[in-house]
């Protein structure tokens, strides 16, 4: 049985990026109460309250503290939060413990505290190597600030460093993308490459900005070629790594492994038929709002497996899929997959169904043809 994972959400940022649709707040006056509520929620799981379906699975081998911006927490907060985790869970030796950071708040104090808590992986956002672009999208750092922060992280002995860039930002050029990848590759062995999605409610949406899909597709192909030339291998549609530095935590999401979610906006999954989520309101979370649970239907299980596993370079394990779904749904999948295999949009390699590398950017369209209609 696979060990569970823990995700912890820190919904605070010094400023809100103009493309951001994540759960975040710039009201730091709530931070200490939030950390207290978060630590209490984690400890309550150990006392048998909330998410009782997890009680038999308290061994974990990945922890991910995301945001928001965890590096902007007051000192001592990270120690309190991860201390609560260790008081409830058995954290395996060699567990991957990741904390997200932004360059402007990645200080000596933050890294020293992270190391003292057992953090061994830092994920630090770059988004672009062009200072003008960074300013226009509301980022608080510049390219030099990223370099300084990355050097600081490595000076503390953390060599597992990840970063990310966004494709389709306003005014972005091919040269800018190559420069961003080259910059990240100097300090990081993992990079996430995301196509910008302009969601309603963001500043870019209100401005009326929409990225050109064809241009973004060209940028993605350029990013893949550039990363390949620098020794990075794609293991999921948006994620590339070298030196065996794949994100162990994210891989577990794609494999449908159970995970706990703590904090405002966080989600959890029991690995079978139950998901849960928290309120996205920081104030409501602090006040102790109820967790919302959802029972997954047979169609949910089918669709989630297809959607998540086909994102990966390895693809779907046909045997594992067959063990999770009914024979009726397995037959329906095989019928649809056969059509896509004949058209060259899927491959069957030794029992793994996968999207060919040159078709990865149209992954969403391929997956849509395999998904089952919830209303059928």
Describe the protein's architecture and organization.
With 376 residues, this protein is an alpha/beta fold. Helix 1 (31-46) runs parallel beside helix 2 and helix 6 (174-187) runs parallel beside helix 8. Helix content is 39%, strand content 20%. The longest helix has 17 residues, at 213-229. The chain has helices at 31-46, 77-88, 108-116, 131-136, 143-155, 174-187, 203-207, 213-229, 248-254, 282-287, 298-309, 318-324, 327-342, 363-370; strands spanning 4-10, 59-67, 90-101, 121-124, 161-167, 190-195, 233-236, 239-241, 259-262, 267-269, 274-277, 292-295, 316-317, 347-349, 352-354. It has 14 helices and 15 strands.
Strand content: 15-25%
**Count of individual beta strands:** 15
Figure out the total of helices.
14
Kindly state the mean pLDDT as a whole number? Answer: 93
Name the poorly predicted regions.
none
**SSE sequence, one letter per element:** EHEHEHEHHEHEHHEEHEEEHEHEHHEEH
Enumerate the strands of the largest sheet in spatial order, edge to edge or round the barrel.
7-8-6-5-4-3-2-1-9
Indicate the radius of gyration in whole angstroms: 21 Å
Name the overall outline.
globular
Q: Helical percent range? A: 25-40%
Largest sheet: number of strands, sense, barrel closure: 9 strands, mixed
